[in-house]
Amino acid sequence: MADLSGASLTALIDAPLHLLGFEFGEITAERVNGRLKITDSCCQPFRVLHGGVSALISEALASIGGHVASGFKRIAGIQLSINHHHPAVTGDLIFAEATPMHTGKTIQVWEVHIWKVDPSTSEKGPELASSKVTLLSNLPVPENSRDAAANLRKFAKL
């Protein structure tokens, strides 16, 4: 596996997450995770993590995991349900992790949890959000996107 920092890996795999500063940790068919330090660009006007950012993280991690689990077929999110339990504010560090609940040939369901973490110990604190993401996983990859999985294939642990 090539040696890239989490930020460099994110730039190759998911541009919107990269713009927010998200850094991937593990990418497998059983788990996708990573971290984000909350900055003003992630927050709503009250300097609290924007719920849309939590939803973006949830769908992105589940979709990446689903893509790997499907054998790198095209994935489309068809339903996202997210609950926000506690706030995160500017300066907080969060950890997000997606794991599959069901990885069928046509439909996949992934669960995603987001926690605040202690930056000095990486110990999980309060859960900030939890979600379920349903994915359609039997879609053909369009001809103009045949290389879409190339970077992910390099870094996913199969």
How is this structure best summarized?
By secondary structure, the chain is of the alpha+beta class. The protein contains four helices and six strands; from the N terminus they run H-H-E-E-H-E-E-E-E-H.
Structural notes for this entry:
By secondary structure, the chain is of the alpha+beta class. It has four helices and six strands, in the order H-H-E-E-H-E-E-E-E-H. It has helices spanning 6-13, 15-20, 51-69, 150-155, and strands at residues 23-27, 32-37, 74-84, 93-103, 107-117, 124-139. A six-stranded antiparallel β-sheet has the order 1-2-4-5-6-3. A hairpin with a 6-residue loop joins strand 5 (107-117) and strand 6 (124-139). The protein is globular, with a radius of gyration of 15 Å. The termini are close together.
- Structural classification: alpha+beta
Helix content: 10-25%
Average pLDDT metric: 91
Element-by-element helix/strand order: HHEEHEEEEH
The total beta strand count reads 6
What's the end-to-end separation, in Å? 11 Å
The parts where pLDDT drops under 50 for at least 5 residues are: none
For the report, how would you describe the main beta sheet? Answer: 6 strands, antiparallel
The radius of gyration computed from the alpha-carbon positions, rounded to a whole number of angstroms, is: 15 Å
Count of alpha and pi helical runs: 4
- Order of adjacent strands in the largest pleated sheet: 1-2-4-5-6-3
Strand content: 35-45%
What best-fitting shape do the alpha-carbon axes yield?
Answer: globular
| Quaternary structure | single chain
What features would you highlight for this structure?
158 residues; alpha+beta; six-stranded antiparallel sheet; 4 helices; 6 strands; 25% helix; globular
